[in-house]
DNA sequence: CTGAAAGCGCTTACAG
DNA sequence: CTGAAAGCGCTTACAG
């Protein structure tokens, strides 16, 4: 096929003429909505091939009232979870020949959320996926038309009818329990701000301590600036009742370890530290960092598939599958940054 | 404004009727292409407000022949550079009320590149941004219509008329020279596969060694699987002529360090190791990793702005700005993982 | 400055 | 199974 000049993109009429049929027939051939005679199918196929014809999704969208596009609303574009999930959505969408539009939400400017959502909807997407790892995502929900296929990713269980969640609270609980099981009397927690739902690693940490009747120290909240986590590590290192720390993510964990070291506290000998997310670098760390991996990529893929079911059903005029919440499991990765606590002092 | 039901979205005709004007007048008001009388402007504004009218970008695109959309073609969606650049493009696009479509290319399936590009073009984007960090990106260029505004990100200098590049070769040269300047007789190189251009960190490494007349050992190529880099570190650790290693990225660097340690080779005392990209975790490492930071976010933003200039000029019917290549500087971050080499043995 | 008309490239009843 | 006609919601010459 010759390189397109952009001026002479063939349109359906060109195909029809070359194949000796009408434009609607070509359309029917393309969409498979109505049977087209075998003989014409062949002629049309040939014409399309010859012309290098590609239907205009724009024109199609104007007729169909929607595009083969999924719009993703997400805050914190720099977060690991966001970019991994995006990647998953894109991959699954591509397989269905859907395009993905990403519209970033800005948590620090909640007033802009409505405008952003309108912008995202302006292309008449077939459906929307909203990441509910944060408040902006939750607010976005308010502005989506109720008849638009929707899947929520993350957030609390049952926050939406159709949802892909990770068992994050359970994971946080698991990690904390793991430390408690090793003999630590309590577990400190350093984390970036907790999400707005009750299904967070922080909630799970709290659950475990409460369940065991351990002392619950206020979580230390840090920003993405790792220096804050280092400082948190230093402060924790000054206290001798600190023997175990659950960091809300791997970056924070290694920063805390650094702060601890500055106070001559060794990991894991003096203090056990575990992270969360199981980033690539976690296993390379010294000591190799114990962490809990979440499958954000998988979540993104599943989110698109769940959305696509709805889109398909809507287009076929059948009932959509029943609402449901799918849980994507993560898994702990036990390594060398935590160890049993022996209260010999 | 009431929550949209999706069924009754007002259209331009509704606005026209309510304002007592014709649809074209509303259109002119919206686009500012032709003067509209003050009195009608007010009535139209009021009608739009009252109805909560939002123009259909799809219909507009069908008339205008293009959407306010930029399509990004990128391979390696999981790469740090890709997701950071995406983020930059999205941010700049959003400021101009442009939407971003991401179409991933698959390096392992070069045959699919043409289809992917066609898919991306099917929305009639106003322009395209292609990341040329890899072969798939380069190939994508062949399928873009020549009259479509285009900006290439990354790649070799002058690979395209309009381009945002980082001085990667120079950076690789700088890091290698830095090690050489500290007395190391040569510098070993462990890296993920080199990009297809001649503006890579690996090329810069080679430049420096050649310039200084140092021995040039074949680069050790590893995949994203960090175990391979650990293994590379082990092998390097077995040789006593290894005193300095330039890793192609920070993840590889820390994996190499791990391998080195397994062979009882300390960093930086026995071997100096430097990374590339200056990821968040680099400064947290023990020893803090020397690295070279690239501003991918900035590159993404600039790429969109450069594209937008062209789009704007085209729409205004004026000459586009002259082609140019912009270089986005990075900066070295010197830390603790390298040190002077004293040949006392 | 403004309206009636035609067109962007498809799809979908409507009649065969 | 298939074609002629109308319509999706805008914009742009074309005449005032």
From TrEMBL, chains A, B:
PROSITE patterns: HTH_CROC1, HTH_LACI_1, HTH_LACI_2
Keywords, ordered alphabetically: DNA-binding, Transcription, Transcription regulation
HTH cro/C1-type domain location: 13-58
Pfam families noted in UniProt: LacI, Peripla_BP_3
Molecular function in Gene Ontology: DNA-binding transcription factor activity; transcription cis-regulatory region binding
Transmembrane parts of this sequence: none
Domain HTH lacI-type: 10-64
UniProt xrefs under CDD domains: HTH_LacI
Gene3D superfamilies (alphabetical): 3.40.50.2300, lambda repressor-like DNA-binding domains
UniProt cross-references to SUPFAM superfamilies, sorted A to Z: lambda repressor-like DNA-binding domains (SSF47413), Periplasmic binding protein-like I (SSF53822)
Protein name as annotated: LacI family DNA-binding transcriptional regulator
